[in-house]
Design goal:
PUA domain-like
């Protein structure tokens, strides 16, 4: 499935759910109906520090408490996206209820274990690099 959106378009949460047929919560939202994984990087209400370096986006994986794992949940789906056929789309939140579409992205490199504080101010995160198409 190919979702046609323009980079920079602002959607609300309901529009994302309707378009991608995904759930309304979380930073990684997989849809079996569209075989898409929506990544949401919330810069105003997040434990983790996702960031752009050039045209590469460093996204912190799923899991708010304790050490994250690449072997479960949506982290695995994203880490295997080069071979599992899942289409990945990235949104960033910089203002309440406004999701800025950054485009379809693809995985680059291997996941990086990165020291970041979780919601309890301890443990590690997994940073997963994606690049815009």
């Amino acid at each position: 499935m190919s979702i046609d959106l323009t980079k920079g378009k602002i959607l609300n949460n309901r529009e994302i759910c309707d378009l991608f047929k995904c759930g309304p919560q979380g930073g990684m939202r997989y849809s079996t109906k569209t075989n898409t994984l929506v990544l949401v990087s919330n810069h105003i209400n997040s434990v983790y520090q996702d960031q752009w370096i050039g045209d590469t986006f460093y996204y912190t994986g799923m899991g708010l408490s304790g050490d994250q794992t690449i072997d479960g949940n949506q982290n695995r789906r994203l880490a295997q996206s080069k071979t599992n056929g899942v289409e990945i789309h990235l949104f960033e939140v910089e203002s309440e209820k406004e999701y800025i579409y950054q485009g379809k992205v693809e995985l680059i490199g291997e996941p990086i274990v990165d020291e970041q504080k979780d919601k309890d101010e301890i443990k590690k995160g997994i940073r997963i690099s994606v690049k815009t198409n």
